[in-house]
Amino acid sequence: MSVTIHDVARRAGVSIATVSRVLNNTCKVREDKRLLVLEAARDLGYSPNPAALSLLNKKTGALGVLLPSVHGEFFSELLNTLDEAARENELILVISTSHRHEAEFQKAMQFLDKRVDGLIVMAPELDAPAAASILHTGAPVVFINTYAEGLPADVFNFDNYGGSRALTQHLLDQGHRKIALVLGPQTAGDAKERARGYRDAMAAAGIEDTDELEFEGGYDRKDGFVAAEAIVASTVRPTAILAANDYCAMGVVSALHTLGIAVPDEIAVAGFDGLMSAKYGVPPLTTARVSIGEIGARAVGRLVARLNGELPEGDFDHQVVPVDLVVRASTATPVSV
User: Fold this and answer.
1) Is the pTM of this model over 0.85?
2) What is the CA 270 to chain-centroid distance, rounded?
3) Are 323 and 186 in contact (CB under 8 A)?
């Protein structure tokens, strides 16, 4: 059974009200009684319930983090950055996931509500009304990689459009014209932006119709593997493939190797995100490198500033954080174009 404020009061020989005053620091308590309460709380291992503190308008000392997933290098690096920035501000993280489903997202929000002082939310699958519903909790929110126009909140997005366009332009500059695109999740705003960047670069090169070059995919290795099989079996054989992200690109490379197709000599492959494993793949993967650490630090810094009352009400920062084109051995000039 968990220790309660009643147990602390009994151990210290004081009233429950006195324990509450000491632990919540709401008014002055005689020093000898204060020490008795603190000693009893320490001996019993008691800590106040965060939700109860929240009801008393006290800070919980926690930041909520809601992500689509915690699987893989990308989210691991993001969480490490968020955790480091939070600890520098003497805060802890409370983490939940939406699994890219709105129902799961709402469930996670119900759990986090009143348990944290502020929220960092990455929800590329949400539309504007669903994203705006988060703001009704009353806690300050910083969005990462979330596409909902006009949100009265701080928003830091990766330049998914610019990165994808730069990758496509890189392949076009090498002489590729039949460039296949493996799409990301259809409901995800970041995937839509990457598709838009690809299409605009192709259109600027005079290739307006890309329908036959676009293939269903996703953000996992399996998605890339299955998409690559479909691409090779299609009537339009590309000389290059732009994958939804690095994991997807790794799946593409694996499928091409299995099918006996050389990368990049026969088909070049590029990804997106700039994962460390992409650098050490065979061949090393051309990608658009996202500043995961930078955007995580910015998000925590902005949220802490808002919690500390350092930002005027209504002063919201909407930023698009640039990504870097990293060219490696997985892309090369096609043998025949």
Assistant:
1) no
2) 21
3) no
Contact 72, 247 (CB under 8 A): yes
CA 62: distance to chain centroid? 18
- 34-45 confidence digits (pLDDT tens): 889 888 888 887
Number of Cβ atoms within 10 Å of the Cβ of 167: 29
Measured CA angle at 310 (ends 306, 315), to 5 deg: 65
Residues 181, 195: contact at Cβ < 8 Å?
A: yes
Output the CA–CA distances (angstroms, integers) from residue 150 to 117, 207, 318, in the order listed.
23, 33, 10
Ramachandran bin of 100, using left for φ above 0, alpha for ψ from -120 to 50, beta for the remaining angles:
left
Measure the CA–CA gap between 172 and 178, rounded to whole angstroms: 9
Q: Which of 240, 159, 168 is nearest to 202 (CA)?
A: 168
Contact 121, 146 (CB under 8 A): yes
pLDDT of residue 335: 54
Q: Are strands 287-289 and 324-326 parallel, antiparallel or unpaired?
A: antiparallel
Least Cα distance to 270 among 173, 200, 192 occurs for: 173
Rounded to the nearest angstrom, the gap between the alpha carbon of residue 263 and the centroid of all alpha carbons in its chain is: 30
